Amino acid sequence: MPAGAPKYVVQQAQRKGWTTLAVSPDPAIAEAEFDDAVRHRPRSFFRLIQLQSSTSLQEDVFDWRLVRLHDPRQAAAGGPSRVTPAPAAPAAATPARASAAKARPAAGGRRRGVTAGVKPLPLRFYLACIGLGGVAVAAVLLLGR
Predict the structure, then answer these.
(1) What are the angstrom distances between the C-alpha of 25 and each of 2, 32, 85, 121?
(2) What pairs with residue 49 in β-bridges?
(3) Around 120, how many Cα atoms within 13 Å sit in the side-chain half-sphere?
(4) CA distances from 118 to 29, 67, 112 (A)
């Protein structure tokens, strides 16, 4: 394959990086691989990028362009699951969307936020702590004499 020929790469997000799933010189095959990956793992982030390589004497240099992106957060919110990159993202859109999400309760009747996964401790736990504290104070007072 010549050094200047574009390649299409399907990648999946893994922790702090991206894992390459498929590499293809044909964009139609890469699109099919991307759709298949999204269909099998809809809760993962995927991207389809176009790589343009230019080989120099010392190292390979890659320029890439985002073709398609699958964001599961967009798909869950009812938005488009595949977003093409916009030239500039407005900074004011994020706080407005976050405040709108906090204003309305989630499906279970609870509000989304930091406390969504926190369960309150049962009353028995509090009573046991108070009882054990009382026993410890009594033991110190009785044994201390």
Answers:
(1) 11, 13, 21, 57
(2) 9, 66
(3) 4
(4) 45, 39, 11
DSSP of the chain: --TT--EEEEEEEETTEEEEEEEESSHHHHHHHHHHHHHH-TTS-EEEEEEEEEE-SS-EEEEEEEEEEE-HHHHHTTS-SEEPPPS---TTHHHHHHHHHHHS--TTSSPPSGGGGPPPPPHHHHHHHHHHHHHHHHHHHHHT-
d(CA 52, CA 38): 24
Name the residue ranges covered by the structural domains of the chain: 1-85
Taken as a whole, the chain contains a residue count of 145
pTM of the model: 0.50
Place of tokens 């009812």: 78
Q: Supply φ then ψ for residue 51, to 5 degrees.
A: -100, 130
Give residue-wise pLDDT tens across range 27-78: 999 999 999 999 999 999 999 999 887 666 556 677 889 999 999 888 666 6
pLDDT of residue 87: 46
User: Of 50, 63, 60, 54, whose CA–CA distance to 10 is shortest?
Assistant: 50
